[in-house]
């Protein structure tokens, strides 16, 4: 199945899909999302989300996961994933669909780790972890990359909500994402990530160097609204995006004035096992 068909089934429609989202494409998708009619996914959405909430509350520790504890009782996780498999995300309003996709991604990453636990040190040790192994989402079988892409097409802040089970990933939020609060949750996740000097952002004032997560390098076009070629030369665009989304406004003004050089941090792919 082509990527265009997959994203169409998930309700993300674009006439020409680039490798990552662009500003014009996002606007078109937001207009198209109004055609969804607000139909609910297959029954049990509230109960299923509550099950994922319990997984996060009971086994989410310091932004990671107690995989050993969760391995002993996977009932809530399996209940939520059964809901994901049977749902119809394309029928949901955009905010609910976005929350659904982020929750689905995070839950399937946890499942994929548990299926190989203990003994797994890094998801990078598993061939095809992100781009070959498939999971059932709304009746289709998608890779983690495809689920993430569908979510990114709706909002670039998804980068700070989807968690790839690695130390340098954003922290796993201690609650499920919901359509009613998704904007607030994504903005909070963005602020938290950029406030973490070990993961998101660190400013070396003396050298005027701004250290950023490699996420900003790998997905530069998502933060600049341009093609990959444009993004390659658009370090200033990335800086503008970061400044506009910093929770620390004093630091934001300092960065705007100083225009620091950008240095990308090395990514730690070790498992976020707690």
Account of the protein in words:
With 274 residues, the protein is mainly alpha-helical. It folds into two domains: 172 residues, no CATH class; 64 residues, no CATH class. 47% of the residues lie in helices and 9% in strands. The chain is built from 13 helices and seven strands. The strands form three sheets. The protein has a three-stranded mixed beta sheet with strand order 5-6-7. Strand 3 and strand 4 form a beta hairpin. Helix 3 runs antiparallel to helix 5, helix 5 crosses helix 6 and helix 6 runs antiparallel to helix 7. It starts with a helix and ends in a 10-residue tail after the last strand.
Notable traits:
two-stranded antiparallel ribbon; 274 residues; 9% strand; 3-stranded mixed sheet; mainly alpha; globular; disordered N terminus; 7 strands; 47% helix
Topology:
Elements: H1 3-9, H2 23-33, H3 45-59, E1 60-61, E2 64-65, H4 67-72, H5 75-86, H6 94-114, E3 134-137, E4 140-143, H7 144-152, H8 182-194, E5 201-204, E6 209-212, H9 215-218, H10 220-224, H11 228-232, H12 235-245, H13 249-258, E7 261-264
Parallel strand pairs: 6-7
Antiparallel strand pairs: 1-2, 3-4, 5-6
Helix pairs in contact: 3-5, 5-6, 6-7, 12-13
Q: What can be said about this structure in brief?
A:
This protein has 274 residues and is mainly α. The chain is built from 13 helices and 7 strands. The chain folds into 2 domains: 3-166 and 173-180, no CATH class; 201-264, no CATH class.
Uncertain segments: 1-5, 13-44
| Number of separate structural domains | 2
Q: Within the largest sheet, what's the order of strands?
A: 5-6-7
Number of discrete helical segments: 13
Largest sheet: 3 strands, mixed
Rounded mean pLDDT is: 85
Instruction: Give the number of DSSP strands.
Output: 7
Give the overall shape.
globular
Query: What distance separates the N and C termini?
Result: 37 Å
Indicate the proportion of strand residues: 5-15%
Helix content: 40-55%
Which structural class do the helices and strands define? mainly alpha
- Output the helix-strand order: HHHEEHHHEEHHEEHHHHHE
Please state the CA-atom Rg, rounded to the nearest Å.
Answer: 18 Å
Assembly type of the chains comes to: single chain
């Amino acid at each position: 199945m082509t990527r265009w068909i997959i994203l169409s089934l998930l309700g993300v429609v674009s006439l020409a899909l680039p490798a990552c989202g662009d500003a014009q494409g996002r606007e078109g998708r937001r207009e198209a999302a109004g055609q969804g009619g607000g139909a609910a996914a297959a029954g049990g959405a509230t109960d299923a989300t509550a099950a994922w909430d319990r997984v996060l509350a009971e086994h989410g520790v310091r932004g990671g996961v107690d995989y050993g504890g969760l391995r002993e009782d996977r009932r809530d996780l399996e209940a939520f994933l059964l809901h994901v498999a049977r749902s119809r995300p394309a029928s949901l309003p955009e905010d609910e669909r976005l929350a659904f996709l982020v929750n689905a991604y995070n839950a399937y990453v946890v499942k994929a780790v548990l299926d190989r636990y203990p003994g797994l040190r890094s998801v990078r040790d598993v061939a095809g972890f992100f781009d070959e192994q498939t999971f059932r989402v709304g009746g289709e079988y998608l890779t983690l990359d495809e689920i993430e892409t569908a979510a990114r097409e709706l909002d670039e802040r998804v980068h700070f909500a989807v968690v790839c089970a690695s130390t340098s990933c954003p922290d796993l939020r201690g609650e499920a994402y919901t359509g009613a609060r998704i904007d607030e949750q994504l903005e909070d996740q963005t602020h938290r990530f950029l406030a973490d000097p070990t993961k998101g952002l660190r400013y070396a004032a003396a050298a005027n160097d701004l250290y950023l997560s490699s996420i900003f390098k790998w997905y530069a076009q998502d933060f600049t609204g341009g093609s990959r070629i444009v993004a390659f030369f658009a370090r200033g665009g990335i800086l503008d995006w970061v400044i506009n989304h910093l929770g620390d406004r004093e630091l934001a003004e300092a960065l705007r004035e100083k225009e620091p050089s950008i240095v990308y941090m090395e990514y730690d792919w070790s498992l976020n096992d707690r």
